[in-house]
Amino acid sequence: IIYFEFPFSLREYASNSRILRNKEKLKYSIILYVPEDRYIRENFLKKNHPNELVFNKILLHIKKHCKSDGHYSTTTRELLDSIGFEIAENELLSCLKILENRNYIKYNISGKKRLIFGMGKESKPAISQKYINEHLFNHYLELDSTEEFINSKSCRRNELINFLHKKIEKDSCGICDNCIDNALLKEKNLLTKKILYCVEEIRGKFGLNTIIDVLKGIKRNVVLTYNLNNSTSFGVLKGIPRRKIVEKIEYMVEKGFLSRTSGLFPAIKITTWGKKIIKGMEILQINLPKHIEFSRLNEMDFALFEELRVLRRKIAERENLPAFSIFNDSVLQELSIKKPKNEKDMIKIKGIGNKKFEKFGKEFITLIENYVKKLQKI
Known about the structure:
By secondary structure, this protein is mainly alpha-helical.
């Protein structure tokens, strides 16, 4: 089941999921969500939440039309036409729901989509605005619960069980997105720490290929010459593909855990931030790196993308900043495709504001201009 809209109530979501799991053998439940959805729901509730005058008019109308047996059958359209004032259908249904919750009326929808009303047993006083506001506030609390559930990093199943006040039997379900992501994150954090420890152990004197040889336990000449095969990091990533370690180290350089020296044979060194992570002074809370959609880049665009990454790394080293804080990979991808010629074009790209352009933009514009000129000569 896929929810294209933000669920109004976590209880309703849990109930629907349970029913569908039992009847339809539901395996997956997906909520498509952006933060703005919460405010859309809030505005919907405000617009469709009538005042006390409307409530009492509808209640009086139903009482008036109830037959001697205390029942009244009609359709939504007939009810809207007969109550004597304009009201939206959603507003009417909201009214009926609240009246039913307070036992003023009882109603159900028959097979022919007719509303069949019956009056509540107890006579009640007119609904006050105070109660209406409380009811609206309770709706907001339900939205809060749903939003907390969506943004939670804990096991989804346990969150629902806890919400329904039931006993939690397992620490994690192992199949929800959070449980899977946490398992991958633990694996990745361990990989990160092993690489950081290796770079610190060999004192940042060697380049990328040598570091990978040590981690994979490969006895090349450089490794044997400097006795790196005796280090505690030798062979700790023996089963990990070389390409994955390369991607990981490049990513760590961009994130600022490692740095690369300049020169013909650049060495990889650990940064202050990287040392803090090893010592446990800094909590590692980064997600798995997202791969760039290279399918959007042709051969020429990809070459420019690589040059932009090199420039970003140089600026990051100069400014003593993590590379991602300058421009992330998705911004570099857009720069590679659109090739802006001036400030106006560059600011149109998502992730580039006036301040960032003032600080870094001109260098990227110059690189793009030179790259385009070089292409034109080919």
